[in-house]
Amino acid sequence: MQEVRTRFAPSPTGYLHLGGLRTALYTYLLARKNKGKFILRIEDTDQEREVPGAIELIYKSLRQAGLSYDEGPDMGGDYGPYIQSERKESYMPYALQLIESGDAYPCFCTKEELDQRRKTAQDKGETWKYDKKCLHIPKDEAKRRMQSGESFVIRQNIPEEGSASFDDMLFGHVEVPTNTLDDGVLIKADGLPTYNFANVIDDHLMKISHVTRGTEYLSSAPKYNLLYKALGWEPPLYLHLPVVMKDATRKLSKRYGDPSFEDLLEMGYVREAIINFIALLGWSPGDDREFFTLKELEEVFSIEGLNKSPAIFDMNKLTWFNGEYIRKMPFEDYLTMAEPWFDKELKGTGIDYRYLAQLMQGRTEVFNRIPETINFLKTQPDYELTLFEHKKSKSTQESSLNALEFMLLVLEGIDNWSETALHDNMIGAIKEAGLKNATVLWPVRIAISGLASTPGGAVEIAYLLGKEETLRRIKNAIERLRN
Ligand code: GLU
Predict the structure, then answer these.
(1) What local confidence, expressed as pLDDT, does residue 48 receive?
(2) For the chain, which ranges sit under pLDDT 50?
């Protein structure tokens, strides 16, 4: 069997969007599953669309995602260069070969001429496609004009009759009448190939076995197959992947503010969770298992599990997924990842991060939500006294005032402000007084947090705040409840 060689072939037009990341992931998995090679190729022949820095961003994103490639621009390999603009010389010989065989021809029409003829066609209500005018220039004359320095492009000569087809591993047999296809440009006036030509030449020269890419290329693939045929090459296996949608009506897109992979990482989504989640956007293992490491995906991924219909990216589901990953991660990892987010609110306060992390790990869904959750430790929010009223703990404003006055005395007497000391003293005093834990601890927690819901209870928060701040907040509450 032929070695499996897959390639991810992004154009450096910006950040790596999530649809692109998913294509990269499936392409990577297909190679790993079959003990093959995963190759990165940069498709930068449309230099007008190129965004500076985008190539480096692709390397970085793939690295962060853990999708290591075996060959690529910054890796080397036997089939390089892996950046198309550095392969400029590779394409022309094949284009000339196609001219020789009659499968391509040089076209000298200027932009103005083309605009004019397009307009005439459109005025007549016809859909414009190139009218093969330059196909009829005698070969010798065409050759002479090409050598004279006149500007030209090279077009594919699509047969006027018959059909073109290819077989897709997901979508099956795709066949179109050739008269619906345009004589597209293979080599542009600047000598660089278009995507339509470069993908064929490079996939062949790089011995790619499986071509994976978005369904937007499904309708052009018959044309590519005509080129393989004309060059006498065996076409690769094709796998077109359905788009990732934001909802039923539109594609996921940065333009509408949908996050890129980098954005998600910055927001505090965990890379393993993103990868796991993305893998399930259009692929299923065949049972209802949901959690996979990248290593596990490398084992279980299969083309049979792919879904033909567009996948919908559900941010809430990702967030839930992320929370699951955070809860399961080793504590030390959590602490390391949480620290910069703690710093945003608490830097310099001396608050015990390790202790805080223990309270926070179970309730962090996304790291960027940490600051708003812990902000009360730095600044107590304004709160209504009605917050002291709580049915379950039988608290009223009056009982809360009593409880706080009582606790103030207990807390004032604690010198060694440790969690254990706080716990033993507070619980011990409550018991001795014959009171109920909830009746006392509810108002204390409200008084020192100002929030109905907090990470940790009265003891934990009191410990984190320290003696001075805890007492200050309790006195303040007593003051307010008295008036
Ligand atoms: N360069 C193309 C793009 O970024 C990729 C198409 C392919 O993988 O063949 O859309």
Answers:
(1) 86
(2) none
The residue among 224, 284, 286, 297 whose CA lies nearest residue 30 is 297
β-strand partners of 155? 105, 185
Among 168, 199, 240, 254, name the best residue to mutate to test ligand 1's pocket (greatest count of ligand atoms within 8 A of Cβ).
199
Q: What is the CA 268 to chain-centroid distance, rounded?
A: 13
Whether this prediction's pTM lies above 0.70 is answered by yes
Per-residue pLDDT at 2? 84
Give the CA diameter of the chain. Answer: 109
Using the atom order of ligand 1, give the atom closest to the CA of residue 11: 4
Residues 6+ apart with CB under 8 A from 368: 266, 267, 268, 341
Task: Enter the tokens of residue 184.
Answer: 């597209």
User: How far is Cα 292 from Cα 284, in angstroms, rounded to an integer?
Assistant: 11
pLDDT in tens, 86-116: 999 999 999 999 999 999 999 999 999 999 9
Q: Which atom of ligand 1 is nearest to the CA of 212?
A: 8
Q: Are 5 and 37 in contact (CB under 8 A)?
A: yes
What is the structure's pLDDT at 161? 95
Contact, 404 vs 444, CB < 8 A? yes
Reply yes or no on whether 317 is catalytic. Answer: no
Listed residue (81, 69, 2, 72) closest to 45, CA to CA: 81
* Residue 258 near residue 318 (C-beta atoms within 8 A): no
